[in-house]
Amino acid sequence: MRTHFPGRRGRSRWRRLVVHLRLAVGADAGPLWRPVDRSRSRALLAAWLAMVVTAVGAGAAALLLYWSAQGDAARAAAKLHRVPAVVRTEPQQADLTASGAPAGGYRAQATWTYPAGHTVTDETAVPSTASPGSKVLVWVDDAGRAAAGPRSTSDIVATTGFIVLGGWAGVALACSVAYSVRRSRLQRRAEEEWQTDWAVVEPTWTGRAGGRNGSAD
């Protein structure tokens, strides 16, 4: 019965990686290795390197996008104000998304005063539990118009992650396809070289080159 020891599989993977590295840089890893094997190692390492570089780039892009979005959100929030308002109508569910979920929560007519002395009655987002006559807090801009609230950190993180992961997945897929195509071509090349070599060796190997074991009768 074959026994597997912890860590043996990991060491085997590292040994294979070392072999690929030696082949990729042109070092001789053994007498049976062929030029096509070196090309395979280089293609494999190039694919992995592209994936690593892309992952690092995606991480950097995520940070840049997040910081930029946070800056935009902070500038937008500086122009928004939370003011008290009186609800005038029953809250109605906002337009639905394709899945049937509320796209913007609930909305109702409400009245508020902002800036000082400027009274506005308009439709705005309200809690689903609001009722006519109840008081709620609403978001308005500098002119007193109803506005959406500032973006939350979780929303920024989710949007940034979706964009960055989508881009990284696209690049990773392109690298995977390119490597698969290259590997298939190298496999065909290896088979052609093997057939060519076998055509030379086979008569001697089988004894057809001249008598038994290749010797003349």
Keyphrases for this structure?
about 220 residues; alpha+beta; OB fold (Dihydrolipoamide Acetyltransferase, E2P); 2 domains; about 15% strand; disordered N terminus
Overall average residue pLDDT = 79
Tell me how many strands there are: 5
- Unreliable spans are 1-7, 97-102, 211-217
The proportion of strand residues reads 5-15%
Q: Give the % helix.
A: 40-55%
- H/E topology pattern: HHEEEEEH
Task: Characterise this structure.
This protein folds into two domains: 22-70 and 158-204; 81-149, OB fold (Dihydrolipoamide Acetyltransferase, E2P) (Beta Barrel), CATH 2.40.50. Residues 1-7, 97-102 and 211-217 have low confidence and may be disordered. 53% of the residues lie in helices and 14% in strands. The longest helix has 54 residues, at 153-206. A hairpin with a 5-residue loop joins strand 3 (106-113) and strand 4 (119-126). It is built from three helices and five strands.
Topology at a glance:
Layout: H1 8-24, H2 35-77, E1 81-87, E2 92-93, E3 106-113, E4 119-126, E5 135-140, H3 153-206
Antiparallel strand pairs: 1-3, 1-5, 2-3, 3-4
Helix pairs in contact: 1-2, 2-3
Question: Summed up, what is this model?
Answer:
The chain is α+β, with helices and mostly antiparallel strands and 217 residues long.
